[in-house]
Amino acid sequence: MEHHINTDEIIDMIPAMAWSTTADGMLDFANQHFLEYVGLPLSDIAGENFYRLFHPEDLERLGTEWRNIMTSRTAKEVEGRLRRADGDFRWCSLRQKPRHDSEGKVVRWYGVVLDIEDRKQAEDALKETKAALAASEHNLRLIIDSLPVLVWSARPDGSADFVNKSWLDYAGLTPERILDWGFLDLYHPDDIPEMVEIWKRDLENSDHTQLKGRIRGGDGKYRWFYFSGRKLTDANGVVRWFGVNIDIDNLQCAETALRKSEAALRESEHKLSLIINTIPAMAWSCTPDGQLEYWNKNLIDFVGLPFQEIVGLGFYRMFHPEDVERMRLSWDEVVATKQPKPVDARIRRFDGEYRWFNLRQNPLLDAQGEVVRWYGVVVDIEDRKRAEESLRQSQSDLAHVTRLTTIGELAVSIAHEVNQPLMAIVTNAGTCVRWLQPGQTDLEQARFAAERVVRDGHRAGDIVSSIRAMAQRSQVRMERTDINQALRDVLFLLEGELQSRGLQTVTNLPPDPYYFIGDPTQVQQVLLNLIMNSAEASSSDGEGTIYVGCSQNANSEIEVTVSDTGKGIPPELVDRVFDAFYTTKPDGIGMGLTICCSIVEAHGGRIWAATNQPRGTSFSFTLPLQGTNR
């Protein structure tokens, strides 16, 4: 017994994890080094409890291995993960050896556990490195074989030692037929002497080579290739040449055809120049980036400037100063998008007078869709511009007359509207004077009466201002305007007229302002015309209703609707109501809705009509929304 204790003490001193089991594999001893490693006492791992030390993923495998070892009674090294005292699982090697009795039966098992985590990680890292290297080499080979060019490498003497798959596919031969000097058999006989001379010269005197020649393909046809190679020395001092052969057969054919056509092209250009300078039109051409390179004689004579002063980007000096920036932006857009876009601008004539011109352009594109040159003409549109201005002035005059006509028709209602606040002013002024009389003085009542005088005075002023604004013949002014306020002003002006006709007005206006950029007087004219049309189409029996609504539609536009319950317009005639001189009124001239359409479209909107069910008509129009107060 004393001898056994001494042996355990000696085993505890060994700097290795030692253990022993009974013949049937039950752990009955672990040295101190083992117990400290796993951080558990022997009682917690004795018997079959030692399995708790194994990683769950290794448990079944290690159990099977241990049972096989005990069955075969043969020692075998086994690897698995054991939980260390800090909870980490580390790879360990479990080695064991049986002790037999005189009859050869196993009496006990003895073994050691070796921590091989560091070795395992090193082995895994090495495996990963080898796998990555193999994958990298495989990928490199795939890349080289997939390149749409003929890749090769050669020895210092110029003989080939590698060709990629594209080379083999093109030649239709095995590598043995191409490597070494076999590739010379594929070169065109007429090209070999010069190609070999250049190749030998560069091998001896240069670190790169460039040449051109024909190579026979698997179909027996020769195609032109461009050869490019470079000499490289690896880390071991081994010299090799690497290069590619690029198919340029199509380019070579194009170059040949181009040389043949250059003379004809020069002759054609000469004839074209004569024609362009002779035709009675102003023509020009620009480089792909938009710089002037040619203007014909007619245009140079018109502007009276030498071509040297307008070449490149100097042509901007011919335009009116107010048009230069707009022209620059338009031309930059055309050059960038490669899409033609006619533009109008004023050009200074040699005598200093500016005339309106329309500049049109078209690109000449190559096979790849790139601009080769810009061509264009300059068309005098001064007379057309004057006619358009005259037409706009006539439309403005007609719109003004329409407003005055409408206001004249409302004169009685307007007079009634103005008369109400004026009579209220007189009444309240008299009341104020009475409360200021001696013996009846009441300053508070007098102040109330005076405030009513001020209020009614403002009301009368608002009515007069609205009428004056509608009646004034003023220039178009584009400003940020609230459509809701414009609607309220028109409804305020028409309040008396609608009441006198026995019509009810229903409004549905958003609480927040809806802004648009435009002329408020013109838009109010549209509203005035639409509401009065509805009023004239409605009955005066006290049951007629006019609906006025404003909202934001699905396209983020302002949408205004004026609807009535009047006699309506036949569905088949709805599309004609905006035609000039078409009217459904006995005394109408058919221009009101036409003017409305022109005004709305000039503001970037659209207008339409629809038949209501069971009766009545709806007119709607849109304006671009420029923001709200939401």
Main attributes?
45% helix; single chain; alpha+beta; 630 residues; 5-stranded antiparallel beta sheet
Description:
The structure is a single chain. By secondary structure, this protein is an alpha+beta fold. The protein is 45% helix and 25% strand. It has helices spanning 2-13, 32-38, 42-45, 56-72, 117-146, 165-171, 175-178, 192-205, 249-278, 297-303, 307-310, 321-337, 382-409, 411-435, 443-471, 483-500, 520-537, 592-602; strands at 17-22, 27-30, 78-83, 89-100, 106-115, 150-154, 160-163, 208-216, 222-233, 239-247, 282-286, 292-295, 343-348, 354-365, 371-380, 479-482, 504-508, 515-518, 545-552, 557-564, 607-611, 617-624. The strands form five sheets. Strands 2-1-5-4-3 form a five-stranded antiparallel β-sheet, sandwiched between helices. Strands 7-6-10-9-8 form a five-stranded antiparallel β-sheet, sandwiched between helices. Strand 6 (150-154) and strand 7 form a beta hairpin. The longest helix has 30 residues, at 117-146. The radius of gyration is 50 Å and the shape is flat. The chain starts with a helix and ends in a 6-residue tail after the last strand. Residues 1-5 have low confidence and may be disordered.
